[in-house]
Write a structure and sequence with these properties.
Bound molecules: zinc ion
CATH class: Alpha Beta
Helix content: 10-25%
Largest sheet: 5 strands, antiparallel
Distance between the termini: 57 Å
Number of strands: 7
CATH architecture: 2-Layer Sandwich
Number of domains: 1
Strand content: 35-45%
Structural class: mainly beta
Length: 138
């Protein structure tokens, strides 16, 4: 999202909305990706030298389960604030900071459900959906 600084007055807030196309922000990081466009809402406020942007993002993300390697979707929303020094600028593009916020949050390890049984260590079947004849526990 590009915020044109001359389109609104100082000490006045405006709300801007935009869809984020995940590919445009390079949001795919392996363990987590975004299957649909995300909704971005930004409340922006500026004074002479500073811009404050309160961002709300919501949408769907997909994770790969650390145990069974199945993909699952997860609705999320996130709020954060960004601050910029706007001395001498006509516009501010917040995309890379939005990307950082969305990616920094990702967990190192995710499970599709708390009791995920994972894959069989011997034959590799998904033990949530299948049984195998491998001996376990010995
Ligand atoms: Zn799982
Ligand atoms: Zn097995």
């Amino acid at each position: 999202m590009k915020i044109p600084l001359n389109s609104f007055k100082n000490d006045q807030s405006v709300v801007l909305q935009e869809e984020i196309v995940p590919e445009d922000l390079d949001l795919d990081i392996g363990i987590m990706h975004f299957p649909e466009n995300l909704q971005l809402k930004a409340e922006v406020w500026k004074s002479k030298n500073d811009l404050t942007v309160r961002v709300h993002v919501e949408g769907m993300r997909s994770f790969t389960c650390s145990l069974c390697l199945e993909e699952f979707d997860n609705l999320f929303e996130k709020d954060f604030a960004l601050h910029y020094d706007i001395k001498g600028l006509d516009s501010v593009t917040i995309d890379s900071d939005v990307r950082d916020e969305l990616i920094l949050e990702h967990p190192i390890r995710v499970l599709c459900r708390t009791d995920c049984r994972g894959l069989c260590l011997f034959c590799g079947v998904n033990l949530n959906t299948e049984q195998c004849d491998c001996k376990t526990g010995e």
